[in-house]
Amino acid sequence: xxxxxxxxxxxxxxxxxxxxxxxxxxxxxxxxxxxxxxxxxxxxxxxxxxxxxxxxxxxxxxxxxxxxxxxxxxxxxx
Length: 78
Prior knowledge:
The protein is built from 2 helices and no strands. It has helices at about 10-35, 45-70. The longest helix has 28 residues, at about 10-35. The chain is mostly helical.
């Protein structure tokens, strides 16, 4: 994976996919509860917070792994 992420284009595509995953989870967390009829004003804030945390955890985790494995250039930017 380190060899693949050595290419700047591969790294950008991987980071874009991590962002897409985070946005998908953020939207899906609320949309699933709305479709099931479980989203109400009383619990909407908690559901949105949970969806945001899940999106940040998974999407951010994939992005951090990619940035950690990407070889750094002399200037410090991958």
